[in-house]
Description:
By secondary structure, this protein is α/β, with parallel strands linked by helices. The protein has helices spanning about 5-15, 30-45, 70-80, 125-130, 150-155, 170-175, 180-190, 205-225, 230-245, 250-265, 270-280, 310-315, 325-340, 390-400, 430-435, and strands at about 20-25, 55-60, 85-90, 100, 120, 135-140, 160-165, 285-290, 295-305, 340-355, 360-370, 375-380, 405-410, 420, 425-430. The protein is built from 15 helices and 15 strands. The radius of gyration is 24 Å and the shape is globular.
Amino acid sequence: MMIRRDSYIEKLVSLMNNQRVKIVTGIRRCGKxxxxxxxFSNYLMERGVDKKHIIYLxxxxxxxxxxxxxxxxxxxxxxxxxxxxxYYIMIDEIQRVFSIVNxxxxxxxxxxxKKNDEETISFVNVILGLMQIxxxxxxxxxxxxxxxxxxxxxxxxxxxxxxxIQPLSFSEFVKAYDNVNTNELFNEYIxxxxxxxxxxxxxxxxxxxxxxxxFKLTYHKDVEERNKIRNVxxxxxxxxxxxxxVGSLTNAxxxxxxxxxxxxxxxxxxxxxxxxxxxxxxxxLKKVDRIxxxxxxxxxxxxxxxxxxxxxxxxxxxxxxxxxxxxxxNIIYNELIKRGYSVQVGVVEVYSKNENDKTIRITLxxxxxxxxxxxxxYIQSAxxxxxxxxxxxxxxxxxxxxxxxxxIIVTRNSGPIRRDEYGIVYMGIxxxxxxxxxxxx
Length: 441
């Protein structure tokens, strides 16, 4: 099934031949390889690029194991450049290339570099060298942020552009179907998500088995092996805890207390923080900070986490704990990130009188503060607004934000967009997701 991913193709096209390396990142199995190998390669060939000038290397393919040596990789690519035409070099899973000690210091022998070795050669050196060739346009991909550390990005000397790929958004997901009601499709999407391969299965059981195995055999195993985690059970329990609490305020202390009360485990705050960082490095989770809306200052005590894909979140709980309200919130967050917004959780403090006529301070939360340049939107996710009490609850924080930026409540129910007496905009989740310009409607 060929699902178009036009927004990513547009990003790649806008960066073509800019003398910088294009770095494609994202969670494993989200479609990075397909984007480069099929969609972008087809785009190039449709515009007259000779197939011989498109070189795609999958470094997770065993037949390319010899290219994991950076010297061998560099030599192989240079041998492919036969004329003055532009060569589009695409290297997939480049983080698998191991670093070596410069053979000048090992009597010509190939020796894998250790952490503290100096005078090493890595894939960064390969890329920097290839960037000196005028008729080479470079694209690399990886599935974890290890190869995008600050140190490595410094070595690229600000000569790289990152393109972050996510699982299928709802608008991309819908394109895979003909004449199917979008309400039905959203019910499917909120349960099984947008990992591309799920669309190839014809039953719920097969989709769910695939997603559960993907989490266990790919993501967990990858994080465990890369970070040499000994207590695998702790990591498995942590991902389950995070899935149960998606979109809820938390911190390492709260999570460790959950371990102690539920799992009878004495995991430390430091270990929780470390494991969460590993899960972020693998693009499984994304941490979202809180800000004081009025002062625009970060509030560091608690934060939220969202999953890369709703299907993966549900898979971690064996599809037994739906919580569609928080999962819809997760989907909204992923969509905002896809559109290029910087996203935080908003906090506004208000003062009110209690029953004793005493002034008290109340902290209200807005699910998302989405910013891009001079644009800013306050967005609340409300799965149900079926009572007046619920309506007042969902808009309470928005009513107390005293600036002119747009305020939006996204609901599960579809229908015409409307505005209330406070200027708050109400729209259905399907319209929000399917219209790229929905925030400005």
